[in-house]
């Protein structure tokens, strides 16, 4: 479970990332939004979210093990 401080820090980081995308004329992918919600809900850790993002977006042949 996330502490209140950790959750606030992550919420701020996710909001800043989304704002940055929007300034570039882009929108966050629904997959990423779903992951951020799962992190904030305490369902997964930020590290697990990073692993899921890599698995989702990086082709298997491009991954460094």
Written overview of the protein:
The chain is an all-alpha fold and 65 residues long. The protein has one domain: Helicase, Ruva Protein, domain 3 (Orthogonal Bundle). 66% of the residues lie in helices and 0% in strands. It contains 3 helices and no strands. It is flat. The model has no long low-confidence stretch (mean pLDDT 91).
Give the gist of this structure.
With 65 residues, this protein is an all-alpha fold.
How would you describe this structure in keywords?
65 residues, mainly alpha, Helicase, Ruva Protein, domain 3, 3 helices
Number of helices: 3
Which structural class matches the secondary elements?
mainly alpha
Report the β-strand fraction as a percent range. under 5%
> What is the N-to-C order of secondary-structure elements (H for helix, E for strand)?
HHH
- 3D shape: flat
Low-confidence stretches: none
| Strands, total number | 0
- The helix content is 55-70%
Radius of gyration (Å):
13 Å
Biggest sheet overview: none
* CATH architecture descriptor text: Orthogonal Bundle
- Give the C-level CATH assignment: Mainly Alpha
The number of domains: 1
């Amino acid at each position: 479970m996330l502490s209140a401080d950790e959750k606030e820090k992550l919420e701020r980081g996710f909001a800043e990332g989304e704002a940055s995308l929007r300034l570039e004329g882009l929108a966050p992918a629904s997959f990423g939004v779903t992951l951020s919600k799962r992190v904030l809900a305490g369902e997964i850790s930020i590290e697990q979210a990073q692993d899921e993002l890599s698995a989702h977006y990086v082709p298997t042949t491009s991954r460094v093990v």
